[in-house]
Amino acid sequence: MNNRIEKSVELNAPIDEVWRALTDHEAFGEWFRVKLDRPFVVGEITTGAITYPGHEGVKWTSMTERMEAPRLFSFRWPHAKEPHPDPSGEAATRVEFHLEPTATGTHLTIIESGFESLPEDQQIEALQSNDKGWDVQAQNIKAYVEAVPR
After folding, report:
1. Is residue 26 within 8 Å of 40, Cβ to Cβ?
2. What is d(CA 126, CA 71) in angstroms, rounded to the nearest whole number?
3. Cα distance between residue 43 and residue 45, in whole Å
4. In the predicted model, is pLDDT for residue 59 greater than 50?
5. Paired sense of beta strands 4-11 and 34-36, if any
6. What integer best gives the mean pLDDT of the chain?
7. Average pLDDT in the 8-29 region?
């Protein structure tokens, strides 16, 4: 089984604007459709609730791992059923956002890995669901950053 999702999208926006859309918790919440309780801080947990239609109220928990402006932002998020499990535990995947400047804006690569850490009966469903989800989210961030007036 492939235990990794990788999506790439070309964004017609400067790298600094894409970085802000990814790492500012309020901007992230707008395009990802989640209401986060606090900023992303390396080594700390961020919680909130999903606002995406059909998933309203689902709990968000992530542990910010890396923020290397403006090139790499990563966090771990759990796939367990408890309301706020510890994202540093075993049943979590890692999400990485890699940014590269281009002549017309920014190349964004989204990678989610670690599905093998999930309980075996959840791996395929989580991988398939998140694969589709990242297609949607790649288009959401594209629409968000390209709508910013310059």
Report:
1. no
2. 27
3. 7
4. yes
5. unpaired
6. 92
7. 98
DSSP state of 18: H
| pTM of this prediction exceeds 0.85 | yes
Tokens found for residue 27: 């901007």
Tokens of 133: 């989800």
Per-residue H/E/C for 97-142? EEEEEECCEEEEEEEEECHHHCCHHHHHHHHHHHHHHHHHHHHHHH
Give the rounded distance of the alpha carbon of 7 from its chain centre.
12
Residues pairing with 98 in the sheet = 72, 109
Helices then strands, counting H and E runs in the chain, come out as 3, 7
Q: What phi-psi label fits residue 114: left (phi over 0), alpha (psi between -120 and 50 degrees) or beta?
A: left
Selection from 12, 14, 57, 69 nearest residue 33 by Cα: 57
From residue 67, give the alpha-carbon distance in Å to each of 43, 71, 95, 103.
10, 8, 12, 24
Tens of pLDDT, residues 90-122:
689 999 999 999 999 999 999 999 999 888 888
Identify whether the C-beta of residue 83 lies closer than 8 Å to the C-beta of residue 59.
yes
What CATH architecture is 4-18+63-146? 2-Layer Sandwich (3.30)
